[in-house]
Amino acid sequence: MAQSATSHEGIGLDQMLCFAIYSTNGAFNRAYRPILDPLGLTYPQYLVLLALGEADEMTVGAIGARVFLESNTLTPLLKRLEAAGHIARRRDAADERQVRVSLTPQGRALLHDACAVTEDMAVSLRLSREQAEALRGAIVTLRDTLNTLSANRDG
Amino acid sequence: MAQSATSHEGIGLDQMLCFAIYSTNGAFNRAYRPILDPLGLTYPQYLVLLALGEADEMTVGAIGARVFLESNTLTPLLKRLEAAGHIARRRDAADERQVRVSLTPQGRALLHDACAVTEDMAVSLRLSREQAEALRGAIVTLRDTLNTLSANRDG
DNA sequence: AACGATTAGATCGTGTGCGATGTAAACCGG
DNA sequence: CCGGTTTACATCGCACACGATCTAATCGTT
Question: Which intervals hold domain HTH marR-type (chains A, B) (predicted)?
């Protein structure tokens, strides 16, 4: 990937790992949309609900650390989930700076439904559990390398 | 990935291949930003320039097929690249419906610079050429499976 | 030649993402 | 206990990304 195979230009799209990730992310979005749309959810909203399913009463910052997003993205997203009745937001009594987010019963039920349909799609990927796990592990390792690079730049 | 390991909920974020892809895509964006920002480019703009580097005088549709985007995303992006002087857009004389996009000399020089810095980052990923190629191939296969799923749904 | 169907781009509205900045609460050294 | 710093979240502006829709050009059939 670091060196050119063709004559005219430095890098071709097809040799780039980042484009493979970029385009596959788009493909996942397109695949999930027809599943999530009838439920009234976007893909990032679904990820946030999954995070809350793992640990309820999280702060905005904790959710952000889990899904790699900041408050500037999460605050409007959470407000939409709240308006839809899927979550509740309230200031922490002990530290008024923090906002605690919790699933409503309706949100928990929705998450349950979304997970069920999602598991069907996992089967459609045509990967064995071992293949999927090996691939996932390699990708996450790459992600962590990238995050370390960015963190080192910021100091 | 298709079956639950935990007791309380269906799926955990950490077992999901789609979240690995999603979060790694974000990590790539964050890693490329400090490289591309000084050049006045966004990451999708860079991908489009790369596509034009491979084949100049492409139509909007051809670019879209290459980077998996539609005209609703590409038209404004191309207008910004045009306003910056990196590309030229003109209607095809033979078929006035089509718009031909070409790199200006300035755009070609910019692409050259961007590629150079990008190759440095490829080294930082700490993957051998063989590892990177194997990983890229597996991800692209997954992408193609997903795209086939979506295409079959549309008919 | 004529006209309905198809195709290529463009436009619009909504929802992310994120850098930069704002605001209020909590912390902390003196 | 007080003023400066840090922290947590919110706000704003810009740039994707995409479904839905529009317009203009081309094609196909008669």
Answer: 14-144
